[in-house]
Amino acid sequence: MDGTDVTIPEHIPELKHHFDDTAQQYESSTLGMWVFLLTEIMFFGGMFGSYTVYRNMYPEAFASTSRFMNVTLGATNTAVLICSSLTMALAVRAARLGAKKKLILFLVFTLILGIVFLSIKYVEYHEKWVDHHIPGPGFHYDLPQYYHQAQILFFLYFAMTGMHALHMIVGAGLLTTLIVMAARNRFNAEWNTPVDMIGLYWHFVDIVWIFLFPLLYLIGNH
Amino acid sequence: MSSQITPVKNYVLVFLALIALTIATTLISRVELGEYNFVVALTIAVIKASLVVWFFMHVNHSSSLTRLFVVAGLFWLAIMLVFVMSDYVSRGWLPGPRWR
């Protein structure tokens, strides 16, 4: 190899020297993000697994708890998250087109919807607090025969929705970072990988809720 | 660089499908179907998640390697859930000290 046929690519500041081109760099970023999301799937999968085990052991007790879940707020929150997934997808699209104003607009919409979700979640947690449905010494349940088993469900409820809410808070921080970066003209049609990757994260958090909603709110709703 | 630009219309159609499925699953949950309530709710959730993964997360435009990783993740999740449940469900099938 004498190296005379090597063409030097156009210099893009964001292209790291160990990648051939931006396409290769983008591909490895996508793959890396998916590997991270797979660890997240296993993390939430463990909690979904324990939910399945306990639901299988105490089906009546678990079904009885859903009458104390606020289905209206849960369904509203599902719709809010789906809206935020749409605005996130449109933000990624705007970033690929290099449309800065649209990108910032859709990122702000997504952030606002995320905050709306967390606010509704706060209202629900407060309801649980008022109804003494927080597991622990102050726990109270209208059906005494299910006192202990219902506590397991409420513990899982707080663990799963709590971890989900924590992911939403992290997502809100990431969105804020993106908005600042976009305002500082850090993204263009050639390079906008962070928007793409955080978009993947946001959609993943949406998917977790898509499963939490039927499992926690709808079982035994009839 | 991934240069595929999906028309806004496609995203809006996926969004409308997701909202319709959310309304459907909420309404169906009010009908007494026995154990099928659980099956229907989970089936709708899987359809919704697949729509998000395929269209919003752009797996429809992803490389084969990325798709392989996505499928591998679901496979590993299936291993975890199936092995855990095969333990708990089969307890008590054989005579002997009963696990409680």
Largest sheet of chain A: none
Helix vs. strand class of chain A: mainly alpha
Radius of gyration of chain B: 19 Å
Q: Give the proportion of residues in helices of chain B.
A: 55-70%
Superfamily at the CATH H level of chain A?
Cytochrome c oxidase, subunit III, four-helix bundle
pLDDT averaged over residues of chain A: 92
Number of strands of chain A: 0
Q: Give the beta-strand count of chain B.
A: 0
Class inferred from helices and paired strands of chain B: mainly alpha
- Biggest interface pair, residues each? A-B, 53 and 51 residues
Along the chain, the helix and strand elements of chain B come as: HHH
Q: What is the radius of gyration of chain A computed over CA atoms, rounded to a whole number of angstroms? A: 22 Å
Strand content of chain B: under 5%
Could you tell me how far the N terminus lies from the C terminus of chain A, measured between alpha carbons in angstroms?
A: 73 Å
Mean pLDDT of chain B: 90
The third-level CATH topology of chain A is Four Helix Bundle (Hemerythrin (Met), subunit A)
Q: Biggest β-sheet of chain B: count, sense, barrel?
A: none
Supply the number of helical segments of chain B.
Answer: 3
Question: What are the salient characteristics of this protein?
Answer:
heterodimer, A: 222 residues, mainly alpha, 74% helix, B: 100 residues, 3 helices, 0% strand, flat
Quick recap of the structure?
The complex is a heterodimer of chains A (222) and B (100). Chain A has 222 residues and is an all-alpha fold.
Describe the overall structure:
The complex is a heterodimer of chains A (222) and B (100). Chain A has 222 residues and is an all-alpha fold. Chain A has one domain (22-218): Up-down Bundle (Four Helix Bundle (Hemerythrin (Met), subunit A)), CATH 1.20.120. In chain A, 74% of the residues lie in helices and 0% in strands. Chain A is built from 6 helices and no strands. Chain A has helices at 22-57, 59-65, 71-97, 100-130, 147-183, 193-218. Chain B is mainly α and 100 residues long. Chain B has 2 domains: 1-61; 63-100. In chain B, 21% of the residues are buried. The N and C termini of chain B lie far apart (56 Å). Chain B has helices spanning 8-28, 36-56, 64-90.
